[in-house]
Amino acid sequence: MFNFFEERDHKILSFKDTIQSKIFEPISDLEVEAYTSKEPLSYPERTTGDRVVLQPGEKWGDLFDCAWFHFTGSVPSEGCAEKIVLLIDVNGEACVFDDEGNPVRGLTNGSSIYERIHGEPAKKVLQFNDCGKEGQKVDIWVDAGCNDLIGELSKDGTLEQAQIAVCHENIRSLYYDYWILCELSCVLDKNSARYSRIMKVLFDSMNILQTFNDEEIDKARQILAVEVNRKNADPCLTLSAAGNAHIDLAWLWPIRETIRKAARTFSTVLELMDRYPDYVFGSSQPQLYLWVKEAYPKLYDRIKAKVAEKRWELHGGMWVESDVNMPNGESLIRQFLYGKRFWQSEFGMDTEMLWLPDTFGYSAALPQIMKICGVRYFMTQKLAWNSVNKFPHYTFDWEGIDGSTVLTHILPEETYISHAGPRAISKVEDNYAQKNVSDRALLLYGIGDGGGGPGAEHLERLERLKNLQGVPPVKQEFSEEFFKKIDRDDLDYPRWRGELYLEKHQGTYTSQAKNKKYNRFLEVKLRDLELLASIASLYGFEYPQQKIDEIWKEVLLYQFHDVLPGSSIKRVHDESLQRYEIMIDEVEGLTQGLLQDISGNIGASGTENPVMVFNSLSWERDEWVKLGQDWANVNASAMGWKIEEFGKKIPEFAEFKATQLLLENDALKVEFSQDGSIKSVWDKFNEFEAIRKGEKANVLKLYTDNGDAWDIQTEYRCLPVEYFKLENSKAYKDGPCVVLEQNYVYNKSRILQKIILTQGSSRMDFETTVDWHEKHKMLRSEFPVDILAEQATCDIQFGSIKRPTHKNTSWDEAKFEICAHKYVDISQNERGVALLNDCKYGYRVFDNIIDINLLRSPDFPGKDADQGRHTFVYSLYPHKGDHIEGGVIRASYELNMPLTVKSLPDKKQDLASSLSFLTVDNENIVIETVKKAQDSNDIIVRLYEATGSNCRTVLSSEMPVKDAWLVDGLENDLQKIDVQASGIVLDVKPWEIKNIKLNLTKV
Ligand SMILES: [Zn+2]
Q: pTM score, two decimals?
């Protein structure tokens, strides 16, 4: 029961809805015909779909169907001399086109599934004529998608509304005056004078508005104006507000819909910019702009004009808003390289911001990568989603593994889709922990995730919030302007060292395993290709720059924060997998072509069955390789090739053993239980037992996993566990290898695991093929190793980080699943054990157990995720010392980047029989990338210090180096470097990435 005063206040606040209902007055219905199709049609093709004539309430499509709507009618006499608008809602997303086929304005259905706390998603008012003329014709074409902003089918694909209406501008202004005071009253102290005054003018104006004639409206506005115009005297905090739309490039809708979402969103922005002179908007992701450029060139030109006017901001430097947990270091650099080059070539602009508001956690390698790519500022809000600990800072210096820092701002409102009202501003002030230091905070407003962007309502509110007494003033300005204002040496911000781990969405390290596998595979294969093409270019073969750039950009596209993490619908993943397969074929084709070019010119005199062994890693490798049925032990040159002889008899390795219960080579002796699990791994080289006594390793466990693609429910460890059962096994020798093949079964799913030991190697490979038909199950394997360690070492981009093996604090406990790249290692002083992988990212390390997440099977948002066949390898690697002394870094590279073996065709003998293109003489240094420079024929070499040590190294090449420069990540010259007879001497700091440009003599 309301008391008297509550009832009065409730009446006052509800009255805004009454005012709103008077703004638009429908005066005539529009005629509606639609041409429907399954996929989008262009403007010239608009009448080629199936024609239907529609009345409101009639159905025109199913989810993701498309239609061109044709609305016709004429202004009736009631509209004469009035402001005329069209009210259009097709219960889907739509875009109005002009007579030349260009997008002019987006329309969004009011029934969109959207959290209303962030505002109303509807955009259904189309400006038509400021002074209506009787009989004026309406004839417009609208391109529609039968999906709402979030990829849902709203109201079953029916037409909602199509009308001509009068817009009463004075009521509209009155409404926003009334609205802003209503919402302000909700955040004010109820004992304040300000509150009392506001309630009084709202009450008085409500009582005046009986018939809504012009006189009443003017009177009510005058009364409200006193409080709407009341200002703060000397504010401590000012908000910078920037419009945005957060258009996910793919998520609950396919990529093809994103391109249309961009047209809708961006055309709406431009229309509103004409009506609201203070309005500034920003959008990220060059990929999105490229799509707009290709599909809607005139719209793109209009955007370019607004960028030039400084009304439209280019947000962030990455090609897409990428995931940054899983892409490798080179991918992250390429995100900036291609992203910033696009801004430069298309707009003549650079940006110093990284814009990742929605990405699921941030690697500790990022600050350095940002810095070498000319990026100083980082904007996000995702850490507000932490499920356990509240992240303590909003403005802070974020320090990466190498000590680089970037100024970071987490949106204090904890959303990037603010409704831009007093409630939002008040939340910013409440939350902003650095308000004691900084007098600025950033607010991002506009409907987003599926695009849409700001509506007129956001801009009407901001007009009234420039300095409204009771909440901090708000200024519309670019986000980068905001960063420049808070980037002051005299301000003492807190510092956060290490990764920005998101305590949520840990399932994304594993969901949609094939996306992850293909991404890793392409990262590896592009690396090999670029090195090979760089070498080949010096022999006069063409470097396939354009194709490599194209493929890289598409790989970067699928690193978007809902694709690589696996959190999109089935269609998105299916389409990306098809494209990955095509790209893999293209990269393989280019690589084989270059190998053919080179190998056809290599000398191999004196050898009977010569093969070329290509090694892309920056160290020599002695390894066994197989070609057909033949094995050979080869010595491969660093980053180059060597001719080796095949077909020679190899030793018998009689002392090696392969039975169903025992595998033994010169390095390891592995004992198995009857159920297939491992009970002992004896490291013969280092004389220790790797598995803790009495425990079982490599048990293939099935956990109940009721999470979705994002989240693993933490209680999964408390639920009953099931196991794959060993059906049969066989053991055999294959050249230098001993192999145990195990066949496991569970329900309709099967696993074939080949456990392989190879002569000379301490690596035990688990080559795994899974035929997976489970739902809501998670497949994991664990290794309870006999190591006592407080921390695990996890491979990340250009380095590694430590994570706890315990749950001492809530911050430790929250890391119940962690992301690592090629290895996780736990070591004590004299020995350790690593678990390597060739395409997995989800691990759990607790006490002495390293546990790898192999597969999940969520059903949302991607239906039937992860069903079918999967292949992957993980490897147990016991070693002496810690992961550095034990050679874990190299072992993990070697697993991921196997040697390439190629038979030599007819030999011209022009090229040397071995080449070490590049090498470094310090084991701590890894050459990650060798590529041709984007703008010249020079060669870019990217190397890094991989252990956390200061060191000196000599980078040398067997090809004469004429000149060398230190460059940044974007390949801009920093300084010339001396080239000495021995090579280039480099002093490298812990974890430092060095980019070097070499001018090499052509052979
Ligand atoms: Zn997103």
A: 0.97
